[in-house]
Amino acid sequence: MKATGVVRRIDDLGRIVIPKEIRKSLKIRDGESLEIFVDNEEITLKKFSSSADLSIVSQALLDTVYTAVRKNVFVTDRDKIIAGSGDLKKDFMGKELSSKMEEILLNCEKVKKSNVEINTIINDDGADDRKYNYIIEPILADGEIMGLVLMIDMVNNTFSQEDERLTLIIAQFLGKYLEQ
Fold it and tell me: Using one digit for the tens of pLDDT, what is the confidence trace for 68-100?
C-alpha cells in the first residue's frame, strides 16, 4: 500500500474527507459509492463498481447480438470499456474512456458522431489514423448513469435506425439488469 502522507481527523459524525487530489487521481466523483474493508487494524476504501457483474452479463449479451447482426458494440462502465464484440474488439477492449466520452457520460447524452479519431473515444496515443463513426446510448439504473453502450464502425459504414434502436435496447436491458 502506498502512503500519501495525508492525515485527516474524523469529525463528530464519524466522517472523513478524502483529499481532492486523491479523488481526482482515482476518478472518484461526488455521490459515488465506496466499499469499506477491514483487516485487523487497517481500513481500506475501494471504489465500488458493479462493473464486474455488468462485464460478465454485457459480454454474454454482446456475443449473442454479434451472432445476429455482426456489429462492433461495446459496453463501458464509468471509466473504461468492459465488454465488446466485433472486428474492432482488440482495438478497444479494456481501454480507458477519453475525456470526451467522460463528458458525454456525465451529461447522460445520446450521441451519434461521424469521422472521429480513436482518441476521441478512448485514451490512445498510438498512430491509428483510421476514422470511426459511433452511436452512444447511456446505461441508466435507478436514475443514475452506470455506463455507455457504443456502436462503433469504420467511417465508410453508416448506421441505420435499427442500429440506433439496438443500442437503445442493449442500454435499457443492462439498466434494468442493474436495478435488480
Answer: 999 999 999 988 999 999 999 999 999 999 989
Residue 66 is which amino acid?
Y
Which triple of cell numbers denotes residue 10? 474524523
pLDDT exceeds 70 at position 51: no
* Residues composing the chain: 180
DSSP string, 83-150: EEESTTHHHHTTPBBPHHHHHHHHTT--EEEEEEEGGGTB---S----EEEEEEEEEEETTEEEEEEE
- Grouping H, G, I as helix, E, B as strand and the rest as coil, residue 158 is coil
**Using CA atoms, how far apart are residues 114 and 131, in angstroms rounded to an integer?**
8
The pTM assigned to this predicted structure is 0.76
| Single-letter amino acid, residue 29 | R
DSSP sequence for 37-96:
EEETTEEEEEE---HHHHHHHHHHHHHHHHHHH---EEEE-SSBEEEEESTTHHHHTTPB
